[in-house]
Write a structure and sequence with these properties.
Keywords: Membrane, Transmembrane, Transmembrane helix
GO molecular function: ABC-type transporter activity
Protein name: ABC transporter permease subunit
Helix content: over 70%
Number of strands: 0
Order of helices and strands: HHHHHHHHHHHHH
Pfam families: ABC2_membrane_2
Structural class: mainly alpha
Length: about 270
Amino acid sequence: MSWRPIARREFADVIEGRSMRIGMAFVAFVFVAGGYVAGGSTSGDVATYASQLSGLVPLVVTVFALLVGYRAIVADRAAGRLTLLLTLPHSRWDVLAGKFAARGTVIVGSILAGLLVGGWLVSYPFGTVDGVTFLVYLGATLLFALALFAISLALSTLTASPRRATVGAFAVIVAVLFWRNLRGTFARVLDALGLATPAGGLPDWALFVYGAEPSLVYDRIVEGFVVGRETGTFLGPDAPWYLGGEVAVLLLFAWFVGPLVGGYRRFRGTDL
């Protein structure tokens, strides 16, 4: 058998929950509201739209993607449903692929609906929407959401305890929330070790490590390719090439692929 029957059943089960439908509506509303605000300006465009949502989207998408995925495997495993499912002619790949497809569709559909309506509101009645720029913003946002979803799905394969999976998901959310505030702490630690710049800042290699966090990677892609910013530590003319937007795209793709591969390898070798 294939993953498709699992995906169909999983999708029906997921959207049946009231809290999930509320979450989907809220995510879509965030993008619609941003489009309404940006469209009210005579200079409204995709860059304005993306800039207005830059502080909110990483948080909202991170929380939503993690909450959608972190119980995908472990809840069925703890309840015994996973063992029963694998007695049927399904492989573990079928299970993981089906759950990824079903829950990923929920995430992609919520963001896509919100962005399409939001993009239309940006252009009406005074703004303009460049199709290529909008598609770049859409693609970056969806890849960011799927990367966080891949992390949550990997968390779900690492443990047999739903409580531990919950703690892991909460830890990722906290890390995303507070990571931006740790730059000064990292600089002080490196300064104490004699590894900081003469001005007491982060050297380029440390900036790369610090900036590899998914939400910061997403910000660089949006700022570089959508907003068109060419200033700052990462995107300025003096920044090394590996801090730029092109490498950020590769990093975000790695955040998507890496957890999926690692999660599947863990799931395949786990004794249920």
